[in-house]
Amino acid sequence: MPERVSPTLLNLPIAVAKQVLEKLEPMDRLTCRKVCKSLRTAIDTIGINFDSITFEVEDDYVKIIIKNLIIHYTNSEIAVDTEKKKIIKTQDFMERALKDLGTLIKYAKMLRIMEREFHEDVTPLLEVLESKKPLFAHQIILYAFRLSEIQSILPYFDAKSLTGIILWDIPEEPDSSHYFEQITQLEQWKSAKFLLFRDFSFDNLPFEQLFHFEKFIIELETLTIEHAIKIRDDLMKRDTFRECTIWFKDNDSFDEIFSPELNERFTIRFEEEEDFEFGYESEFKFFVKRN
């Protein structure tokens, strides 16, 4: 009597194997994809999607976060307090982390890169992005990158897929205005629907470069009443506009018509069709919103 062979994933009916693979978590699908050509083809048909991937660079380690899994890359002892953790200890921890990022990055819906300690050289990161372009992430979040570096990073993303750009804690550098102007000429900037730009104060921001966003949040040194009214009037004429928030440091001019002790909100009707709300919501915040 012939020996009975237990069925494996590879010799299951295609429909059954697909149901099994579809139930796997993204990381497990990625592991299966490495087994053989047949599984790689099957996984690519189903797809691998991570809601978000974080790549965080510190002085003595790099951290990749995928959902509740945290992977630490280091060349020294490190204490990790988390239920789901993995520690990869190697002298070339940055190189290893970038290699793994290259494997994961094309599956990310949202990519967060935190450049706290890139040792003044983002070239290795740019090489990874170059090798995987175009990237189809819906949202990119960049922490502590200079505007000159952001100008180099954004073009690696598919302009039709990228809907949100978040820039945070941007260091000062010479010719910041020039680099910002170059960024605003990129298709990725022009096509995005949402912008958050914090912890970088502009002295003279070209507001017209923001008006195509459905929603934007920015920070300024000063916002005059004249600028606030111009922004309000321009945005209310745009069909795609939904909401903007402007944080600013100098509020003296606003105190002339708004009471700083109160949240001042006004609702106006535009062309007898839509209501817009605008006002001075806190001591350093101006907003315009389509209701």
TrEMBL record:
- The source's superkingdom equals Eukaryota
The record's section on PROSITE patterns has: FBOX
Domain F-box stretches: 6-53
Record-linked InterPro entries: DUF38/FTH_CAE_spp, F-box-like_dom_sf, F-box_dom, FB224
Q: Which Pfam families match?
A: F-box, FTH
Task: State the name under which the record lists this protein.
Answer: F-box domain-containing protein
